[in-house]
Input
Amino acid sequence: MKKSKRFEVLAARPVNQDGFVKEWPEVGLIAMGSPNDPVPSIKIENGKIVEMDGVARSNFDFIEQFIADYAIDVKIAEKAMAMEASQIAKMLVDVNVSRKEVVDIVRGLTAAKLVAVFNTMNVVEMMMAMQKMRARKIPSNQCHITNVNDNPVLIAADGAEAALRGFDEMETTVAVVRYAPFNALALLIGSQAGRGGTLIQCALEEATELELGMRGITAYAETISVYGTENVFVDGDDTPWSKAFLASAYASRGLKMRFTSGTGSEVQMGYAEGKSMLYLEIRCIMLTRGAGVQGLQNGSVSCIGVPAAVPSGIRAVLAENLCAAMLDMEVASSNDQTFTHSDIRKTARTLMQFLPGTDFICSGYSGVPNYDNMFAGSNWDVDDYDDWNIVQRDLKVDGGLRPALEEEVIAVRNKAAKGLQAVFKELGFPAITDEEVEAATYAHGSKDVPARNVVEDLKAAQELMNRGITGIDIVKALAKTGFTDLAEHILNILKQRISGDYLHTSAILDKNFNVISAVNSRNDYQGPGTGYQISDERWNEIKNISQAINPSDYDA
Amino acid sequence: MSQEKMIEDMVREVLKSMTKGSAPAAQTVSTAAAQGLNPDRDYPLATKRPELLKSPTGKKLSDITLANVLNGDVKPQDVRIAPETLRMQGEIADGVGRTQFGDNLRRAAELTTIPDDRILQIYNALRPYRSTRAELIAIADELDTKYNAKINAAFVREAAGVYERRNRLRAE
Output
């Protein structure tokens, strides 16, 4: 066949480097509406669910039993299940129906019924519903702070900049596992240099995530995965009972935590049982609710390539975020791992959460160049800061970020690097030179900073653990070296675990360390003029971008 | 999966570090009487009801100052949560309809007095194929009698039944 030049150009477009696949319901390669998804049903006898979605209690797998006994409110279940799916969907988009009314119905629904509700909704309706159902009134955002060399000076500086730019939570991880204590320490200091009250976590493959949390070097945890089929759960070496016990263990030590799940993980692991990705994910969401965990990171997360490859996959991702909000939990809605070569496609995917707002729109946005992102890249990175800010300004939407002036960014990066330099010196860790501070202050990424002596750093990072250094030691070191404000900030973060206020749903801290959560900042959206309204102060922050010319600077 | 293994390792490490020198002597778990807390009136507790808050070592929030850190009066074990606080937060959770979350906090309250390494062992014992039915029942009895952790004991007993039915017990 003679080749068309137009098709040649199209074939070279970024979107055509992405992977796509036709639906294959038999193995669960279908986002929504698998012919094998169960038909919703419920039977209750003596206050116990004896049949759910066509399965008799004696045949429940362990996920079904956990959901039946812990997630579903039997007092409302029969009434809720008797409603038409389309009627519940209409309640979701009806501004005259309050969030609470929906939450009270949803707590009586089964997974198959929830799927049936989403099957009736388009993405605009789901976004309208998300605007109402998000638990915290104020939307927010989370970022990743990492680099390929685990350079701590750069992590501190990048953390400071990201906090200044508006992220309320930030997450680091490691290239080299043994660097973990330094990454967490650097991010802790950096975050508080950028904006006091920013919460940090360190996602690790190693034995340190929880330990760092307990020591007060990190403030919360997120990498507790749950799955939608029993086989995958067992492959993950856990059960709903072991995971729920773990959740309580975290809380018993005063640490905020959320679970993680997402569409596509079961089919990727080969045990989808022919069910749709959304149906299996809703089981994860329900068991998270049943376990009494305050929130969930979902939206396919690191499996985004799977739903993104099939029809209606990005719609399913929005549905799973919405479902978690309907079950009255905090939602950290992904928009993280790179899934496309196309900027158009990545933007379309993000608008689903950006426009209605979620508890954390990205989880997270790369607060570093993509080459430095150790979470396999992110959909959004530092080079997109101005795009994000200008889309907020174009649409008058609060996406959690704010434009920042070059001089203020330089100032907080420098302060973070110097604070870390002082703490390293005080604790006897390998010196951070003034040259390194200067380089990190002005760097774009790790290519712009001098290499450190990795062997010495790793030895010292291990020493940090062996010496039993805690957040209290960091506070002391900062205070002794003149960084009193940073010392106060970190002490204020530590105090959160005495009160436990920040264990609650969707909790973040403001710059005065006040908790803002879905307890004292409940979303009360009920149509235009209600719910979260951008304040004049916040709108000025969003709209005053330095790129805009001032008409009064020109002579008439 | 390596991630789950990681989590296990992490938990073990953390909990180990926490017992070092700082484990509060196993105290009777007081099932403190409900305070009648109201989410709108009393939350956040730190600002609205600070008088109710104490660390397990007896420190008040107002004791946790930079000056007291520097003079050595505030130690790492002073910035931990007390079981009574978790129960109060559970009441707040109930008050906003998050009953499962409240239950989690009440399970957590029972776990605060259990040594860290033991918590870790129990977590491990609850993973698939780790325990026989008798071993799980023994753990439940221990939770019940030794730590007065009634809710957690019932939870482990329930797990034993589910694991038996679903063949997730360790084969003897």
Summary: Chain B has two domains: 21-112, 114-172. Residues 17-32 of chain B have pLDDT under 50 and may be disordered. The radius of gyration of chain B is 18 Å.
